[in-house]
Design a protein that fits this description.
- It is a single chain.
- The protein is about 45% helix and about 5% strand.
- The protein contains 13 helices and three strands.
- Helix 1 runs antiparallel to helix 2, helix 2 crosses helix 5 and helix 7 packs antiparallel against helix 9.
- The N and C termini lie far apart (about 65 Å).
- The chain has a three-stranded antiparallel beta sheet.
- The longest helix is centred in the middle third of the chain and has 20 residues.
- The protein has two domains: about 140 residues, no CATH class; about 200 residues, Intergrase catalytic core (hpI Integrase, Chain A, Orthogonal Bundle), CATH 1.10.443.10.
- The chain is mainly alpha-helical.
- It is elongated.
């Protein structure tokens, strides 16, 4: 009789090679929630924190299979194996609802964010599908349950979006943080003007850039590297270089960039150069810029230019992205006009309103 714990471990090992490091973490986090929910009463229950850490860092991380866990962790894993319900009991919809309810709550018992609920439910559903594939279940029991997926916002709160004047002010504040901030000015500008994710910007190479002496340029993105942690990558590094998010392997994304960003990138490369592999953003020792470094510099810059608003404007570097995402279509149209050709319709990936220019007063 296969238990849920055994099945979840086998599922993790089967999915691991094809998952991005960040997705591996997300799957492990969701399986921890479900596995704890699918346990019976058993003596010797570990402390909740120890149990979660044991499941997250050891049970659902195949990279640790050849390592010996600490005694406390080993004891928690032994308990999880003994207390885990058989997979066959998931034929009972009441048991499935117990797991779905756990996916909808935080550790404090409050309602989890809608995106978190959907993500964990998706992992649970896929794990059940793998159980069907392995012959442990006849059909996915979630399909028999009436459940409405929580709505996820498709629009951006305009109150947190940076206006052009605010962006210039914040970038100037970054530039004023001595050399520590000056070398990050172009990095933040890529997030604002080109809507790059931080994981894309840290891997930006000079060969990805077309920076003419005048007018609009372009970036041709090819790779990204999200920070997942050493335990979740193939090579034990904090980041792992991969293709672009939501795109096929080796697919690129071309982004028109305005003259302001062209000038910043040209000046940045002249001043700081590139790494041997062509990356334009680097630490003092030539390494990849860490999340903590660019987040700390941004927080310091915002203190220099406080905003009088109940809603934080661009509280974190990724918050710089929404405004230019709406303006990418406008940039494409302007570029077509500059080349003397009729503008073509912008490709859309979301609701139409997300591609409309964001009109708001500067300041």
């Amino acid at each position: 009789m296969v238990t849920w714990y055994e099945h979840a471990r086998a599922c993790t090992e089967a999915k691991w090679p094809n998952l991005a490091p960040v997705s591996r973490r997300s799957v492990a986090e969701a399986l921890v929630t479900v596995t704890i929910a699918l346990t019976a009463k058993e003596r010797g229950v570990p402390e909740p924190r120890v149990l979660r850490q044991a499941l997250f860092g050891w049970a659902f991380n195949p990279a640790t299979r050849d390592q010996v866990p600490p005694p406390e962790t080993a004891a928690a894993l032994d308990w999880a194996e003994r207390a885990s319900l058989p997979v066959a009991e998931l034929e009972d919809t009441a048991v499935v609802r117990r797991a779905l309810a756990a996916c909808a709550r935080t550790l404090a018992g409050k309602a989890a964010a809608r995106a978190t609920q959907r993500r964990k439910r998706s992992v649970f559903y896929n794990a059940l599908g793998y159980a069907v594939e392995q012959g442990h279940l006849t059909a996915n029991p979630v399909d028999r349950i009436q459940w409405t997926a929580p709505a996820v916002a498709q629009s951006v709160d305009c109150r947190v979006v940076v206006s052009p004047a605010q962006a210039r002010t914040l970038l100037a504040a970054v530039r004023g943080l001595s050399d520590r901030g000056a070398h990050l000015e172009a990095f933040y500008a890529c997030l604002y003007y080109a809507a790059l994710r931080p994981s894309e910007a840290v891997m930006l190479r000079e060969s990805d850039l077309h920076l003419p002496g005048k007018g609009w340029g372009r970036i041709v993105l090819a790779v990204s590297a999200s920070r997942a942690g050493r335990s979740w990558t193939d090579h034990g590094t904090a980041r792992q270089e991969r293709g672009l998010k939501h795109r096929a392997a080796h697919e690129t994304r071309t982004i028109p960039i305005p003259p302001d960003l062209v000038r910043l990138l040209r000046a940045h490369i002249r001043r700081y150069g590139t790494t041997p592999d062509g990356r334009i953003f680097q630490t003092a020792r030539g390494g990849i810029i860490q999340d903590s470094a660019y987040s700390a510099a941004w927080a310091e810059a915002r203190k220099e230019r406080p905003h009088r608003s109940a809603v934080p404007v661009a509280a974190r570097p990724p918050s710089l992205r929404p405004a230019p995402r709406r303006r990418l279509a406008v940039a494409e149209l302007r570029g077509a006009r500059d080349r003397g050709r009729p503008p073509r319709r912008a490709r859309r990936r979301g609701p139409a309103q997300d591609l409309r220019p964001l009109h708001r007063r500067a300041g």
